[in-house]
User: What shape does this take?
Amino acid sequence: MTNVKVNSVAKTYGSVPVLRDITTEFPEGSFTSLLGPSGSGKTTLLRIVAGFIKPDEGIVMIGNSDVTEVPVWGRNIGMMFQSYALFPHMTVEQNVAFGLERRGIKGVEAKKQANQALEMVHLPDFGKRYPKQLSGGQQQRVALARAMVIKPSVLLLDEPLSALDRRLRQEMQVELLRIQRESGLTTIFVTHDQEEALTLSDKIAILDKGRIVQIGEPGEVYEKPLTRFAAEFLGDSNFLKGKVEGGAVRLADGTVVRASGALPADGADVTLAVRPEKMSVVSSLEEASNSIRARITTVIYAGQALSYLLVTPGGLQLKLFAQNKDGRVLSEGEVVTLAWSPEHTIAVAE
Amino acid sequence: MPSDLTTNTAVRGPSGPRTGWTPPQWVATTALLMPTYAWLTLAVLLPLLTMFCFSFLSATPMGKAPIVFTLKQYRAFIDQPYLLNIGWTSLVIGFWTTLLCAVFGFLAAVALSRATFGRMRETLLILILLPFWTNGLVRVFSWTMVLRENGFLDNLLHLVAPDAGSISFLYTRYAVVLGLVHGYLPYMILTCYIALITIDDAIIEAAVSLGARWWTVLFKILVPMAAPGLISGCVLIFVPVIGSFMEPRILGGKVGVTMGTVIEDQFTQAFNWPLGAALSFTLLAVVLAIFATFSGVLKRGAAA
Assistant: This one.
C-alpha cells in the first residue's frame, strides 16, 4: 500500500494545454475521484499516473519511488476501463491469471490465486467461460478481479461504471467500495458523474481546464465550494451577485444578504452561492435568515422530490429543491418568500 | 390544484405507416444473392466444369485426333515422376511466400493500425496499395533490373564496397519468392489490418498495465485476436502462389519451373489442354487436402 504524488505535472497537446502545473497527493488507502467535464484533463492525469502519457513537466511518485520514467508495465498498477477491456480470446480464468503470469506465477498457483480473486467479486464458477458469455456487470467484475489479483500498488479506474445501467452501477459502486476498503488500496477514480463521486470517494478533486480547482472531502467540497465552477459542477447552485456593504452583501434589487466566511472589502463585487435544497418556502420572515420574494415559473414533479424554478421581481432566476413530504405542491404563478441561512451562503470566486 | 388533464395526450385515431404485405425473409435473401450466384455460375462454375470434362479427354477437342474418355491424364504424376519434384517446388515456394508475407504483413498491419499521428495512417495505406496500381508484369520485370548482375542491387553494394563481387540472385528460387512476396504482401497487410483495427486500444492498454511487454502483447493479444485476418490472408496468398507462373518464369529462369508454369505450358505451348486441366485439378485437390488437414487449427484460431 502506497500513496501517489504528482508534482508540477503539465501536459500540452500541440498548443493546447491539457494539464497545467498539477501538484497533489493521493494519500495511502484513499479513494479519490477526479471529477470534471470532458476536456478538463481528468483522464490525462490518470493516464499520466498509469504511465500511458509522459508529462511534459513534473514528476509522478508511487510510494517513495519516482516513476516518471518507468514504463507502464513496470509500474505495478491495477487498471479498469470503461469498455471492460477483457481479452476476448481467453477464458475468465486466463484473463485474471494474465497479470500473474507476467509476474512469473504460473500453473496451479496462478489458477488458485485467479479463482480466489473471482470469489472476491462473487463469480467463483465463471472461470471457464469466455467474456462474451457474461453480462456487462459480470465482465466488469472480472476486470476488477484481474486488476486486483496482481496486488497492485495503486488502483486506477477510468470511468469503469459508465457503461453499466443505473441499477447495476449502484450495485457495482457498493462492491467497488467494499473491495477497496478491504484491500486498503490507494484508488484514483475518473468520473464525470458527480453522484458517483460523492458516494464513493474520501476525496474529490474537481478539475477544470487542466487545473484542480478544489480538492477535499465530499462534504467539504459540496458545502464550501471555492469557485463558481465547483459550485455549479458538483451539485446545483443559485448565484446571487452583489456588492459588499457593511459585512453583508447588497444585491442589485436592494435585498441585503448575509453570508458565512470571509467577504472581500466593502464596495467589492461578490458572487454568493446557495444550494437550491438549502432554501425553503416560509410563511413568516425569521430575523436570522436571508430571505427573498419570488414568483414560481415552473414546477417539476419528480416523485420523491420537487423542484421549482422561480424569478424575483428584480429578474433573478432561482432554483428550489423540496422533499415531497407534506403533500403540498406549490403551483405556477404563486408568489412565495424564500428563506435560507447565512451559514449556507458562500462567497465563491468567479 | 390545477388539472393536468389538458396536458395528457388525447385519444388519437389509428395512425402510423400502413403495413402492406411483406415478402418472407427468404425471398429477400434469394433476391440479394441471385446476381452473385448467377455471375459465379456463368463465369466460374461453367468454365471450371468444362475444364473438368476436358481433363478426362485423350486430346484437346479441336484437332482431328479421335477423342476418347480416359483417366490417363490423372496418372501424369506416376507416369512422369519429375512432376512430383515440380509440385514439391511449388509447395515450398508457396510455403515460404506465405510465411514471409504473414510475418512482414502482420507487422506492417500492426504498425498501420497503431499509427495515429495525423494523416500518417492514410499515407501509409496508400503507399502499401500503390504497387497494386501498376501492372503486375511491369512490377516483376522491374525486379530483374534490380536483381540482375550489375543491376541496381549490385550498384548499391559497390557504392559501399567497390571491391565486392556480385550479390545478384536473379534466376534463383529466392528471387521467385521475393517477387511473389512483393506481389502478394498487400493482401496480407489488408486482411490483418482489418482484423487489427477492430481491437480496442483499451485491451492492449489493459495488457500493458498488467505487466505485458511488447512481445507478450504481440503474441498473446494481437496475433490470436487477429488470427481470422491472418488465416484468410494466408489462404488468399497460398492458393494463387502455388499456381503462379509469371513470377517463376521471369525471376526463376531455368529453376523457375513450377506447377504453374507446367500447366501454362500445357495450354499455350504443348496444346495439351486435358493434361493441363488434370494437373490443375490435382493441384486443387492437394490445396484442399492441405486446408482440410489444418482446418482444425484454423478453426481454433478463428474462434477467438
Remarks:
- Chain A has a mean pLDDT of 92.
- Chain A touches chain B at residues 50, 52, 72-79, 81-83, 85-89, 98-99, 102-103, 143, 146-147, 150, 156, 329, 331-332 (CB under 8 Å).
